[in-house]
Amino acid sequence: MIYLDNAATTFPKPSLVMEEMVRTYSRIGASPGRGSYDLAVQCESFVHEVRQQVSNFFGGDNPDRVAFAYNSTDALNTIILGLIQPGCHVVSSRLEHNSVLRPLHHLRARGLITFDLVRFDGNGFIDPQEVADLIKPQTRFVILNHVSNVLGTIQPISEVGSICRDRGIPLVLDASQSAGLIPIDMQTMHLHAVAFTGHKALLGPTGIGGLVLRKGIEIQPTRFGGTGIESRSPEHPGAYPYRLEPGTLNIMGIIGLSAGLRYIAQQGMENIYNHEMSLTRALRDGLASLDRVRTYCADTLENHLGVLTCNAEDVDPEDFAAILDGDFNIATRSGLHCAPLVHEDLGTSPRGALRFSFGPFNSLEDVKAALSAVSAVAK
Amino acid sequence: MPDVVKGPERVHNLTTRVIEGKEVAFDEEGFFLNPESWSRAIAETIALEMGIAELTERQWEMIYFLRGFYLANGRAPLNRDIKKQTGVSLLELEHLFPGGIRGGARRLAGLPNPKSC
Questions:
Q1: With an 8 Å Cβ cutoff, is B103 touching chain A?
Q2: Is residue A141 located within the same domain as residue A190?
Q3: Among the partner residues A325, A336, A352, nearest to B79 by beta-carbon distance
Q4: A180, A269 Cβ separation under 8 angstroms
Q5: How many separate domains does chain A show?
Q6: pLDDT on residue B12
């Protein structure tokens, strides 16, 4: 099978990741921080090392401010629900995934917050100045997608970060698509928080993600329970990372995340990015030569990741994907990609479009096969 | 008038019509809400509305395959099942029905609107 749905989850995972998960979990897969026996201590120590690894990766300033979560959606819910105050205002964008849109909508529907969404231009980019224009005295934070999961466009986050810093507003980054492909430095980009998932470009398994918080941003816990510390207290502990981590951690996932980060370091993040972009360019150029195929926001591939979305004239995107799968053994993703406003603005709602997304194990042969298949569909 | 029913996963704008003397409920895109309410005569009526004067033997074969698989397995066939079990490629199936695989074949076969996002 040719797998071109890496923006959903990367597949396959590097063998290093798979082997490391089995090996390390077999060795230390106890409950971290919940006992004083050596294995539990070893496991806790390993988890702390991974917190440090993650903190270093994102330019964080304290490994204890790395809180693990199930995925980006989980991490984003944690930060959105933990940051809002009744009556506050939030700025976000129309490029967001439902992982941000739905929590915001939920809170607005209950009269707790208001929010404004920045538009994106014809090339798929937001304008930092528009973010600045939407900030109000009651704006509590700005939350933005680093890379659109539909368009692959890398947003001007550093510029927005400077604006937020000058206005004293925390900037929260959804790094679901970008983490593992392009550098994210919380210090220089002026980010207060980054939400990430482990199973996409970080090449780990599903079920692991997290939040990285810088000093100065405080998140109120919205879930409570066992943490392995302060058991006598009826109150959930306020210390990080326990404040945001009720329940036993996903150790297998943390091992896989750590191995994914090591794999990326070995290969070189820039090399992986360049490889995926060379495939994206080849696909874009090939699709551009097909009269009955339309791509979206891909005229220029500057500030872009290996995600390309298109439609074939008179073919329902779901049928398009079914044909590629059933006849050509090519896995892609059709529909609205959980980002309904992007499709609304592209004019592709409600049926959406077909998305190709590359991973480190794709090749030029995969692109050729995809182009041949699309040619057959779009005849 | 369409009736709006909120379910746990989707919101259906229901339309109930009487076709061939039988009351049939459809969702907002014209898919059968209840595959059991399908009949050959109803499918013919819907086909006519889609611009198909008479369904061909080939089209009926595919409709009955999709229905048979659904009723036996409780789900639509996988893309590979269709090709393997009928010898009809997905691309052929797309061209066989106005509306293509989903809006044509699947809808006429009375299968539920597939969940997608």
A1: yes
A2: yes
A3: A325
A4: yes
A5: 2
A6: 58
CA A360 to chain B, closest CA, distance in angstroms equals 26
CA distances from A331 to A10, A132, A276, A311 (A): 12, 40, 17, 15
Give me the residue from A323, A337, A352 closest to B90, CB to CB.
Answer: A323
% pLDDT > 90, chain A: 98
Q: What is the pLDDT of residue B1?
A: 37
Same domain, A123 and A241: yes
Lookup: tokens for B67: 């229905």
Are A141 and A167 members of one domain? Answer: yes
Higher pLDDT, A141 or B3: A141
Q: Does A313 touch chain B (CB under 8 A)?
A: no
Same domain, A288 and A209: no
Nearest CA in chain A to B77: A326
Cβ of A348 under 8 Å from any chain B Cβ?
no
Query: What pLDDT score was predicted for residue A317?
Result: 98
SS3 content of chain B, % helix, strand, coil (to 5): 45, 15, 40
Instruction: Please tell me whether residues A227 and A347 are part of one structural domain.
Output: no
Domain end (from A246, A266, A286): A266
Are A145 and A252 within one domain? yes
Over residues A154-176, mean pLDDT: 98
Average pLDDT of the residues of chain A: 97
Lowest mean pLDDT: which of A27-41, A171-185, B58-72, B100-114?
Answer: A27-41
Express each pLDDT in B16-56 by its tens digit. 999 989 999 999 999 999 999 999 999 999 999 999 999 99
Note whether A261 and A285 are same-domain residues: no
Task: Tell me which chain B residues have a C-beta less than 8 angstroms from the C-beta of A376.
Answer: 91
In this structure, what token pair is assigned to residue A191? Answer: 């980010």
* Chain A residues within an 8 Å CB radius of B95: none
Select the residue from B9, B65, B69, B116 to test the A interface by mutation, using most A Cβ atoms within 10 A.
B116
Helices A364-377 and A269-288 sit at what angle, rounded to 10 degrees? 30
By residue range, what is the domain housing residue A32?
15-266
Strands B11-19 and B3-6: antiparallel
Q: Which backbone phi and psi does A118 adopt, to 5 degrees?
A: -75, 140
A247 by Cβ neighbours in 10 Å (0-12 / 13-18 / 19+) ranks as: exposed
ipTM of the modeled complex? 0.90
A83 and A103 part of one domain: yes
* CATH at A23: 3.40.640.10
**If we measure between CA atoms, which residue out of A188, A81, A206 comes closest to residue A143?**
A81
Query: The CATH number of the domain where A306 resides is what?
Result: 3.90.1150.10
| pLDDT the model gives residue B117 | 74
pLDDT at A329 over 50: yes
B115 among known catalytic residues:
no
pLDDT at A239 over 90: yes
What does the pLDDT read at residue B115?
82
